[in-house]
Design goal:
The protein has helices spanning 9-27, 35-59, 62-87, 97-116, 123-145, 148-178. It is 78% helix and 0% strand. The two termini are 31 Å apart.
Amino acid sequence: MENKYANPAPLGLMGFGMTTVLLNIHNAGFFPVSDMMLAMGIFYGGIAQVIAGIMEFKKGNTFGMTAFISYGMFWLSLVAIFVLPDLAGGKGVRSPDAYVGWYLFLWGLFTFFMWIGTFGKSFCLNFVFLSLWILFFLLAIHMWTGSAFVVHVAGGEGIICGLSAIYLAMAEVLHESLGKKVLKY
């Protein structure tokens, strides 16, 4: 008897996409970082993506497992960077911006190689990783230079990146739910 598992990719893509849009609304300069964005980073961007990655492992999908668990851990670590210094009664050591720039650069480097892994896959998946690679490098440049212009550009680009992941997630859900492609991906 064959086991039919649900496709975990839409869950991971939604966790990534929605959280990315919210963070980049902040980066674009519209809202400060708040408890809402941090909660999304922990639960939907972090934990939901890790769950999706574990489900991809069960399916034997190395790319999906690596992407969802890694980016889930990115969100958990990013929230920790925001929150941990304050947990020590305000006496915790906050990382210098330049060091956070290297953190973002390394995530960009990882994403560059993941983007190469999308070659030959759907245009939309390729676009998600391409735009995320660009986003990480823009954010690293912002952290190294302090440029408000660069972070606002990154914010707009990140909103597009997040929306592309949401689109792909919904395209896959609707395709499976309705048995036909409703949205091109």
